[in-house]
Amino acid sequence: MPLDLPHTSRIYDYFLGGKDNYEADRKAAEEILQAWPDIRTAARVNRQFMQRSTRFLAEAGIRQFLDIGTGIPTEPNLHQIAQRAAPDARVVYVDNDPVVLAHARALMPGGTSGATTYIQGDVTDPLSILAALSGVLDLSEPIGLSMIALLHFVEASIPLIVSTFLDALAPGSFLVICTITADFAPEQVVAAQDVYRVRKLPAQVRTRDEVTGWFSGLDLVEPGVVPPHRWGLVETTEISPAFDAKVSCYCGVGRKP
Questions:
Q1: Using a CB cutoff of 8 Å and minimum separation of 24, what contacts does 4-9 make?
Q2: Which residues have C-beta within 8 Å of that of residue 85, sequence separation ≥ 6?
Q3: Alpha-carbon gap, residue 255 to 257, rounded angstroms
Q4: Do the beta carbons of residue 115 and residue 90 sit within 8 Å?
Q5: Model's pTM, two decimal places?
Q6: What is the pLDDT of residues 37-70, one digit of tens each?
Q7: Which of 44, 76, 171, 193 is the most exposed place for a label (fewest CB within 10 A)?
């Protein structure tokens, strides 16, 4: 992928304060920041949700993790959280950007008893990803499937993508999602979406009803589909609704019966 063109993973790395990005990524990111000044907060909250949800899955007994849309490694990453709670956890990272995977292989070694593997793949081709898992993860045992800060960059049918993955996963598997919405701050989020689109980067915001529909047939973990800073925390009543607008995301965790 040409480095003179921006990529969503490297833009996200810039928002998180990372250094694994290029001039084209930084230029696009600064334009997005003009439209949505709080997007750095949203990126940070996304990462915190990833950490809490991964810990939740490990404590629920999940020992296999499939993280699609890995992005540039930012510590602590999913495998570190999972293997800290369950040292024998096996983690597979998937991304469609070879630059991301190069960084991943260099920066994310596996644990001593667990395993961490990286494959190149695109979420819009779930069958290819599932085929690549042969011999890496055991599809007859539960898997934690994470698609965090990814699906707002996918224009294909999300219900079809999700159902294809879930049909292949064993009962007891989990689906973890976090994605951008315009429900709270439509003007700034849609303006940011337009910046992505002008640069030929797919971007699509979704409503709460749409995100809830992606969990059809699953048992939603409480508190259901909510902003990510309202998931997995003991007390959320003191969080201002204005902070929902800053983050402008929905998340959810569902278990396959």
A1: 5/200, 6/199, 6/201, 7/97, 7/99, 7/100, 7/201, 8/153, 8/196, 8/201, 9/69, 9/70, 9/71, 9/72, 9/95, 9/97, 9/99, 9/100
A2: 54, 55, 58, 59
A3: 6
A4: yes
A5: 0.91
A6: 999 999 999 999 999 999 999 999 999 999 999 8
A7: 171
